[in-house]
Here is the input.
Amino acid sequence: MKLRTDKAAVFAAALILAAAGAPAFAHHAFQAEFDGNQPIMLQGKVTRVEWINPHTWVHMDVVTDGVAQEWMIEAGTPNTLLREGLTRDSLKPGEVIIVRGYRAKDARCRPACKANGRDVTFTDGRKVFMGSSGTGAPKDGADPNEK
Amino acid sequence: MKVLALMTLTGSVAVLTQSYAEPSSAAHKAAAAAIDRVGGHPNFSGVWSVMNTANWNIEPHLASAALEVRPGPVIPVPAKAIVALGAVGSVPAGMGVVEGGTIPYTPEALAKRDDNRKHYLERDPEVKCDLPGVPRANYMSLPFQIVQSGKTFLISYEYAGAVRDILFSDPGPAPIDSWMGQSVGKWDGDTLVVTVTGMTDGTWFDRAGNFHSGDMKVVERWTMMNENTIRYEAEITDPATFTRPWKMSMLIYRRLGEDARLQQFKCVEFVEELMYGDLRKEPLK
Amino acid sequence: MNANRFTALLAGLSIAALAAPAVFADPAAAAAGAYKAPMNAYGQPDLEGTWTNATLTALERPKEYGTRKAMTPEEVKKIEGGAAQLFAADAAPRDPKVKTTDLPHDCGLGFSGAGCGYNAAWIDPGSTVMRVNGEARTSFITDPPDGRLPPYKPGVTVPNMFMRAHYGENPENQTLAERCLTSFGYSAGPVMLPLLYNNNYEIAQSKDTVAIVVEMVHDVRIIHIGGKHRTDGERPWMGDSIGWYEGPTLVVETTNFPQATALRGAWKELTVTERFTRVGPHRVLYQFRVVDPTVWDASWSGEYEFTASKGRIFEYACHEGNYALSGILAGARADEATAAAGKTAAATAAPAAPVKKQ
Here is the structure.
């Protein structure tokens, strides 16, 4: 599935990124930390979630041939999703998730192997983290007489 | 001159002067009347700081050589990393701020507290410039500023730019934990009562290894004794760590004068060599 | 190189700018007398609350708009619709049959692979274009009339916002944001500018202080009402701000900027003037003027509206959880080791092969 192929979506992405000031920082940092040549797909049980900034980290155990390896998956800032009602119970230990992303360049696996979670879903494909369309800014323009 | 004597359970006596008077006295009423008010409540706006050594150790303590020591030929000596600081690295004495003098740890928690002291440099979150949490933020040596209006009570701390916004409508349990917690305030007469929950377990109470769990609840009471003095109390409830709730109390003083301005202490960059030095392209020898 | 294309998009190119005096739009006219801001307990215009400046409109106007300040309804629909599609696409369930090779290789503007970042759920750049008094705007900047920064003075070198020399070698070579010292972009400013997420601010007012809490990175701007600028030459983070009230408007003047947080290259003689005016129960008009005669011959000015934020300020602790900085440095060391060893990183990587074979 190719995302953002729609022209309007690409243009919107451009405008979003333009408004965003310096998202290139963020992108450059991703490319510094994670290896674009090592895409990875992981399935496993969540062991704990660090709902922290600058990035949320989802810890999961991935079992291969009976051996469990702890992975920590980097995601975004929880603050955005807190405004959408996210809580510490939104993703609980024991839930099974599938992560598609890129492996960290630092392969030392200390304290755990690391990857960046481009998308994180349940086993049925539903996205674990779903945003919204905004922070509640008025959509229809400002009404000077707004109550 | 009216003198108020306070007896603590250890038998020591704290003697305070006229301006800190019995609530029912005429002197107190006069002091209270001089306090500026906003929105129907005493106005705490201003820059404040403590004049105690609570951040070193909230329990009573004599001066000592260092925050972390190691065995010496005769008595313990400062840890290797601290020796070069000499007297600058030593710990001043204090009467403590814990009511009753001793924190009522469970036996396991007390063992952990003592172990924290053996590993001070590695474990005190202040060393890494982590946010200090509540109540510690209020009694660090650096001041804080309160900006209060009829509906807002904001506390901006100089240390690491910590900030707390007191919410006057309870949003329910904190959705996730945070370093400074979720503060919900309400007025009890002229005292602001703030309940702080949702703090991580990553903060300490001081530099003496005193710690808590992630389930800790803190109830603060902020009362202006006169226009330049706050009486601050904090009750700690954390059954995972302590055998019963316990309290600390202290005075906080208004900074006066032209230089009574909050400065900045963004210490994050000061700890980069400590935290990331070994990841440099060419680590220092 | 990717970053250069971005620089071109954002930093603005020289365009002949008309020499025009910088003028703030009159907020009273803008509000058309329909709304009277309440006063607070100190008799000051009440600006308190939690506000957001998240928006799809940028600081500088895309060239195709020319000198046009307002967007047409069709343009608005296209941009807002595009943004909505973006979010909907990322929220949609993933087809269980997709493989790692289906990860977006090109997410536009030259970014690919790991550089494409996360699912849009994690970002909140706004869903609407900026409206000032109901008018959909093509940019924040209104002066110069082309909505873009004026030309730089000859000889002024503007450091690349996105690339730093010796990136990855030392923590001090990383961006202030990666070090958790300030936000990405220019959230605290001043000028306060929105970025990819957490564009939230809280304003608190007392008699002699206005405090603006900037969610990222829990910075608090302290504005001394009725104060004087410091004359000791010190340059604190976010500069030195003084303020005063002019009728319904809070005026803030900031000087003494540090070089580390230069605004589009300006810091040394930079003066930023901001004006905050409540123009509705849920709106604050924010106007700014930027002057630095060592960098630009002309000033530049603009405006946008803050709207009431959904929810309160949440803590953005950053440093306390900054695995990313050690990850970036360790990544750079891994790259060096790989280059030195002459092997691919994949060949030297440690354990667990991915479980799900797809």
Remarks:
- Chain B has a mean pLDDT of 92.
- The longest helix of chain B spans residues 107-118.
